[in-house]
Known about the structure:
Elements: H1 7-15, E1 19-20, H2 21-31, E2 36-39, H3 46-54, E3 60-63, H4 67-81, E4 85-89, H5 93-108, E5 112-118, H6 134-138, E6 144-147, H7 154-166, E7 172-178, H8 179-183, E8 185-186, H9 203-215, E9 219-223, H10 230-242, E10 247-249, E11 264-267, H11 274-281, E12 285-289
Parallel strand pairs: 2-3, 2-4, 4-5, 5-7, 6-7, 9-10, 9-12, 10-11
Antiparallel strand pairs: 1-8
Helix pairs in contact: 1-2, 2-3, 2-7, 4-5
Amino acid sequence: MTTASNPDRAAHRQSLSERNGGQILVQQLRIHGIKRVFLVPGESYLPCIDALYDHQDAIQPVVCRQESGAGYMAEAYGKLTGEPGICFVTRGPGATNASIAVHTAYQDSTPMILFVGQVGNDFIEREAFQEIDYRRMFGEMAKWVAQIDRTDRIPEFVARAFAVATSGRPGPVVLALPEDTLWGKATVPDLPRYQRAHAAPTPAAMASLETLLAQAQRPFLLVGGSGWTPQSMRQIEGFAERFALPVGAAWRRLECFDNHHPNFAGHVGWGMGDALRARIRDADLLIAVGTRMGEATTESY
């Protein structure tokens, strides 16, 4: 029996034997540290459901009544933990129901991975029952959309999905799972747990920022986006205090900065007060950290 405390050793033992696609995929999720998945069971990904039973000591399946709810739970989980929220849905209607959560994750920069059942490769491009081309469907609302057509490439695709979902600006990834890929068998080693790639400014960029701050008469700091930790929030507070910066929180991102902090100026976006709006308009240096300058935050650009 495998143990949750040492998934890498268990993965090595299992990788030496032949497994079906569902077993390979769920073992990979375990290696990547996933403890909870949200799903609406469907016949298009039965091997994954069977494999989840084998890993119930480490991964908790949260069964939902409808795919929109499952998608939103995964999206919220990604927001709260900073780790990709995992969702499984069946093909066709299941995917369309979950698409609204994928769109939310994309706009809110939330790490998320949606696994969608798909018709077998022998039926592709024949308008089979509930068939959808997910690359075209999700192409404009996800960071990466792919279909795993070979069982032995499942570890590669899953590892890349985690890397893409968490690196740079976080966001959703969609992987389609043809039935023959999941039922097929392969003897393939598992890949190690993903490592998040953190973006960081260069010393030259920080020196340039210091120069801009020294020259500015009316600077303003705007914070937002996802991925904030208690440590990073303390650091941004110290930065604001050091340079006496007024701080605004981008639209729907009030949690990014202590609202009771003396440097906090208010919520930036639709409905902000006239004084705050004027302060931002008159600023000679605007420092945006973690946020995108979206429609709501900029009051229609």
